[in-house]
Each structure stands twice: as structure tokens, then as C-alpha cells.
Amino acid sequence: MLLRNYLLTAIFLLPASLVSSEDLLSVYSDAVEGDPRLKMAESKVGIGKALQQQAVGSMLPQLRGTGSFSENRQDLEEGDLSNGGRDSFAGEKYSLVLSQTLFDMPKYFYWKSQKQLSSQYAAEQIEVEQQLMLDVVIGYFAVLEAQDSLTLIGHEISATESLLQQVESLYEKKLTQITEVLDVRASYDALFADQVSAESQVAIERQKLQELTGMGLGELSPLRNDIEFLPVEASHDEWVEKLLAQNPTLVSLQRAVMAEEYSLKEKKASRLPVVDLQLSHQKSDIGYENSSRPKTTTDYIGVNVVVPLFTSGVTSGRINEVAQRLNMARYNYETEYRALVKEVRDALLQVNANVRRISAAEKALESSKRAHQAMLKGFTLGAVTSADVLDAQRNVFRTRRDLDQARYGYVLNRTRLLKASGMVSANELTQINKWLIAQPGQPIQQP
Prior knowledge:
The chain has 447 residues and is α+β, with helices and mostly antiparallel strands. It has one domain (20-67, 90-307, 320-434): Up-down Bundle (Outer membrane efflux proteins (OEP)). The protein contains 10 helices and 6 strands; from the N terminus they run H-E-H-H-E-E-H-H-E-H-H-E-E-H-H-H. The chain has helices at residues 2-11, 24-34, 36-57, 105-172, 178-213, 236-246, 248-269, 314-381, 386-420, 426-434; strands at 21-22, 62-78, 83-103, 219-220, 274-286, 292-306. A 4-stranded antiparallel beta sheet has the order 2-3-5-6, with no helix packed on it. The chain has a two-stranded parallel sheet with strand order 1-4. The protein starts with a helix and ends in a 13-residue tail after the last helix.
């Protein structure tokens, strides 16, 4: 069983020369290449630009040309003015028409709304990019934490097995009771169940991270032990100000509100007159009802005015619809703002709590180590029981897990805080990457 434990632990602790190693930046680079959300966001930005281009184009001069060629036949009936007969002739007609909007407020407000919509899509793209950064950090350190937990269980199995051998040796010498042997063996066997769960958790977390990258993972670089974890100094109000100014989700929702405001103005402006300038040049030898006539050239310039008088409630219905959409956009912004303020507050409190927790866990780990050593000496002298040793040993590994969780929690909560405030970036990932061991494969320090 001990050999099996060493083999399982070694899977995650192989030297970098034997296993392809990956740090946070390389994993993020793979995620950027393979994540479909980024490509969808990029396409959405392209759609916004295309819609804005269409809206601008509708207000600029429009030029169209037409041409027709026809074969015509006329049958004349006999009457007072005609002796009847048939006439066949070919006809040609060409026209060139130039139009320019002079006054069309719905088109103007539509362009303004599409401009805001394009900005909304650009902000959403930034949000997707930042969310991917956070997802990679969460996934990366979830794998590290799961691997650390598995390694710690391996160390605990080794320590418990050593204690079991001592207890069995004492029992053979009639120096202890069978109950102590059974108690230690029960703890020893229970650890293997924990090991199975830890192995499954490692596989699950690695699979989650692979879903982001779309490819297999090598060995991940672990977190260094010499990092100085500093508290965040800025106040909650200062972080909220950063949130309002930089969070891409709020920016996109704000643009959505403005787009709906312009849409409402567009629908209201549909009650105003529309004025167009039109110029045309026409050449034709076809007259009224396709009758033959000499080839003529006609030039035309005119101003067309269209005044909407009555739409049977269609315009009012469209105005009411957009007004409700505007209300929904405002409520959506307020809902997201409150959620982000809470997220900033929680992340700020947690990251500073992690700093204190790390300090406390480091002291607790040193104390638990000394207590464990004292218990081992006391057990050798017969002053304490194996149960006391097991309790002290469990305390060592528990405090080690607490320390690992606090260290990883600091990184994650700090990244969440920056993400909520719209400040997470590739530079932040580079900073976190500097906290990793350059050459992976170094085992966790035994508690």
C-alpha cells in the first residue's frame, strides 16, 4: 500500500525533464487560442461595426441606376380616328437617380443607437477577455490545491504507517493493548479512502482546466513558498470608484441603456416629416403605356416631403415597447451594479483576511509540528497513547492544508477583486506567474 501511495504521489511530482511543464501564462495562452467565447465576442464586435456602418450609410447620398430593353407590339383597333393595324418596335430606357436625406431624425437617432451598441459589444469583448483570465487563474490554482491535498494525504499515510509499525512492535512485546493497534490501523485504512477522493478531485480539476484550453495539460508550476502576501490598502469606496470607471460589464450595460434611449428618440421622431432631395437623369424612347416616341432626355431635381399623419396606433405601440426596453436596461444595470459592489466588498475583505490567515496558519503549523514531535517522544517513553499521537499528527496536516488554502485564497480573491474593478490584465497574470516556481517538479515541503 505504501508503494502504491508513493507511485500515485510521484505522478504529480515528476521532474520537469520528464514531463512537459506549464506555467500560468502558457496555460492562458492555450486558453486564448482555444476558447470559443473570445471568438464569439470578436464576431459580435464585427457585427456592431457593420450595423454602425449601415446606419451611417443610410444618411449619405444614394445613387442608383436602372436600364431596360423591350420589344413592344401595338394593335390599333379600327375607329373614327384609326384605320387599325399593328406596330412593332424596340424600346430602351435608362435612368440615374441620386437622393440625399435632408431631414430624417429617425435615421439620425438610429445611427446614434447603433454607435452605442457597437461600443457595448466592444466592452463585452473586454469582459469576456477578463473573465477568461479569472477562469484560468481559478482553474490553475484549483489543480494545484487538489494536487497539494493528494500529496499531503500521501505524507500522512506514510507517517501513520510508521506509527502503526511502532504500535504493532510494542504490541508484540506486550507493551501496549490491541485497542491501540486497532485504532491506528483504522485511521490508516481511512486515509486510503481520502486518497481515492483526492485522486478523483485532481482528475476533475485538471479536466476543468483542460476545457478552457481545449488541449492536454503537462505538469503545472507550483506556488513558491517565499512569497510576501501583502494586504490591499485601498478602501472599499475607492474600489467602488474604480468599479464604476473601469468595469467592462457596467460599461457595456451603460452603453445598452444609452442605445435604448436613442432607440426611444428614434421611435418618437418617426412622427416628424422626412425631407429628401432627389436628382435624376433619364433617357428613353418609350412613352406613356409603352407607346413609341422619339428618344428624349429628361433631367429632374426635386424635394420630397413625407408627413406621417395617422398610423392606427402603430407608432405609439413602438414607442411604448422601446420605453419598456429602456426600463429593463436600466434595471439590469442597477442589478449588476449592486452585485459587483458586493463582489468587490467580499473580495476585498477576503483577500485581507487571507493575509491574516496565512500569518496565523504559519504560526499554527510550527506549533503543531513541535507538538507532534513532543507527542512522538512521549509515545516512545510511554507517557502518551497512540491516539494522542494521531491527534497531533492530524493537526499538523490540517494546519498545513489551512495554510495552502489561505495562500491560494489570497491569489484567487486578489484576482477576483481586480476582475470586479475591471483591472485584471495580462500584466496581472505575469505578476502571478512570477510567484510560481520556475522549474516545476519540486515536491511540497513536508509538514
